[in-house]
Amino acid sequence: MSEQEIFDKIKEVLINDFEVEEQLIKKETSFYDDMGLDSLDAIDLIVSLNNIYNIEVDNKDIEEIRNIEQLIEVVQKNLPK
User: Is the Cα dihedral 68, 70, 76, 79 positive or negative?
Assistant: First the structure.
């Protein structure tokens, strides 16, 4: 799965489930500073992606995710090979 496909899915979830304005969503966008999400929102987002991609993101990885680009990397890393 390409980075762009994952980005598009994250964007879709952020718009539909978290009501984030589309123009705010860029790869370097911070979940906390730019989008105003809190740590519970971030966990909900990761749970949604776990369900969509049938993956399990490690807690250590979750703690380090601060922006969309980092989230894309973690999703790619956890996708079945």
Answer: negative
